[in-house]
Design goal:
The chain is an all-alpha fold. It is built from 14 helices and no strands. The two termini are 42 Å apart.
């Protein structure tokens, strides 16, 4: 009987593993096809054959320039930004045990936005614009430190962290709006577009600036996936399983801040990606963190990629910020989650 039960459990585990791989492969293929579609579309539509030729054998031509210097870095950055924000949201929702948690909800994105607007308003004329991502990441870090310090009381309480984060986000948002109002027109317009979330004029330097944050933070997040799963069951359960709650929560929070801050630094204030993507991914693969991280990354990449594609081609010759379309989906989704949480409790 024990052997039969063991074989049944093993068969179930193998079946679940195969189902997970199939769904991740499906998402990967969909992302690859979407990236190919995005390479073909734009103000100058390009046939797939010409796109493939430009990718396989780059030559000095207008099409090669459009593909390699305009579209490909923008598409790559959209994929990386979406993945980073989605993973950051998945981590936060796990460690604070709140389905409404995301980098923009608890104030991390707001801190990055305030720092960016301060830079654009006060120092953009004296410092290079290349310092903008540094300012944004510092703002995200300071915001996260404030949330942790204000929520600290014999450790970090998830509920206090969410409440403090929401209050801090509101206060920081008010400060950002004030700065935009008192700034000159040029700085205010630049800040407004950046706050909306735009991948316009993305360059390969932006891509290579974001890659190291993903390379460092994602493996650490996966290494602490079991700790996150234990904390999602409650602190008492996690302690019973031998998890160092404070250390694990701080490490995972640092990973989330690093990913969200870096993404916002290079793409502006893209809201709701970190909220939507983990929920959609969880419907496909469940809430196991080791499975949720790659699935959320793929879903988040798809969301930002299609939002940017719509911004590029839906209202030609205008190029609208991707954040408009993400917010158009994210705001109703947030209301839906609020309604569902109210019905549950």
């Amino acid at each position: 009987m024990r052997t039969d039960a063991t074989l049944t459990l093993h068969s179930t585990a193998v079946s679940d593993s195969h189902r997970l791989l199939r769904r991740l492969l499906m998402l990967s293929l969909l992302l690859l096809a979407s990236a190919g579609l995005s390479l073909c579309l734009g103000s100058f539509p390009t046939p797939p054959v010409q796109v493939l030729n430009a990718l396989a054998a780059p030559q000095s031509s207008d099409i090669t320039f459009i593909i390699w210097e305009l579209r490909l870095p923008r598409i790559t950055l959209a994929i990386l930004v979406g993945a980073a924000l989605a993973i950051a949201g998945a981590i936060l929702q796990s460690i604070v045990r709140n389905p409404l948690a995301s980098p923009d909800v608890i104030g991390i994105t707001s801190g990055a936005a305030l720092a960016a607007v301060v830079f654009l308003s006060l120092w953009s004329t004296t410092l290079s614009i290349h310092w903008l991502p540094v300012a944004a990441m510092l703002g995200a870090l300071v915001s996260a430190l404030l949330v942790v310090s204000l929520a600290w009381k014999n450790g970090i309480s998830p509920s206090r962290m969410v409440l403090v984060g929401i209050g801090l986000a509101a206060a920081v948002g008010a400060g950002t709006t004030l700065l935009i109002v008192i700034s000159d027109d040029s700085a205010a317009m630049t800040a407004y577009v950046w706050l909306t979330g735009s991948l316009y004029a993305a360059q390969w330097d932006d891509v290579w600036g974001l890659v190291p944050w993903l390379v460092v933070a994602v493996p650490i997040s996966l290494a602490f996936a079991r700790h996150a799963d234990a904390m999602a069951l409650g602190d008492s359960v996690a302690e019973g399983l031998g998890v160092a709650i404070l250390r694990s929560r701080l490490i995972l929070l640092t990973c989330s801040v690093a990913l969200a801050g870096a993404a916002v630094a290079f793409a502006g204030g893209l809201s709701f990606v970190g909220l939507i993507a983990p929920h959609l991914a969880a419907r496909l693969v469940g809430r196991n963190m080791a499975q949720l991280v790659p699935a959320s990354a793929l879903v988040g990449a798809l969301i930002v990629l299609y939002a940017d594609l719509l911004g590029r081609v839906a209202f030609l010759p205008k190029d609208l910020p991707a954040g408009i379309f993400v917010a158009g989906i994210g705001a109703p989704f947030f209301v839906y989650l609020l309604h569902r949480s109210r019905a549950r409790f």
